[in-house]
Amino acid sequence: MRKFLLPILIVLILTLSACTYIEDYIPGQATPTVAPVETRVTVVPTLPGDTPTPTLAFTPTPAVPTATPTPAFTPTPTVPPKPYALQPGAVIALPAFTHPEAGCAWMGVGGQVIDEDGQPVKDLVIAVSGPQNGAPTDWMGYTGAASAYGPGGFEIQLAGQVASAQYTIQVFDLNGEPLSDPFRFTTSADCQQNLTLVNFSPNLNLQPAIFLPSISN
């Protein structure tokens, strides 16, 4: 009996499985396949003339060259000539006749100032500048104070020994106004030339007579 039941059960199971498969399968109705959507990007070429022109945020102001002003011409004021100048040929080195005993232990400058009439001028200031012991020094004398050089004579001792050095000499009035330009002269280291004779005359007199001091025995 059991031998007949087992084949029947197997056939029954196969029959039921086939019905289920037939019910689920419908010919001609395959599982739909979704076709992929084709995406196309169209590139529009940009022509050179289609490039937009950038707009400036401001309008630049053109640079205007700055003109350099021409400095106004300022004429140099003309300085009038001073009343006195060195008398031509009146700067002479000679022995100090006013100090013959001093020898090499004296060195100085002396002379006089004369006007346009050849007359001596007194009460003028003679200023001398130069070195002394390596330092700049100023000396001062007055016309009319050393009559050995004439009525308008002056004398200034510069050192206690002879030496070669350069000095300047200038004439002033008693108020300190310059009456001549400063003039340079050089002393000598020779004991027989320890005096420098300097005379002043009017500046407009180009070739005045030379007035030398009179020496009496």
What do these coordinates show?
- The protein has 217 residues and is mainly beta.
- It has a domain at 84-202: Immunoglobulins (Immunoglobulin-like), CATH 2.60.40.
- The protein is 11% helix and 28% strand.
- It has one helix at 2-24, and strands at residues 84-94, 107-113, 125-132, 135-142, 153-159, 166-172, 183-186, 195-202.
- The strands form two sheets. Strands 1-8-2-5 form a four-stranded mixed beta sheet, with no helix packed on it. A four-stranded antiparallel beta sheet has the order 4-3-6-7, with no helix packed on it.
- A hairpin with a 2-residue loop joins strand 3 and strand 4 (135-142).
- The chain starts with a helix and ends in a 15-residue tail after the last strand.
- Residues 21-26 and 205-217 have low confidence and may be disordered.
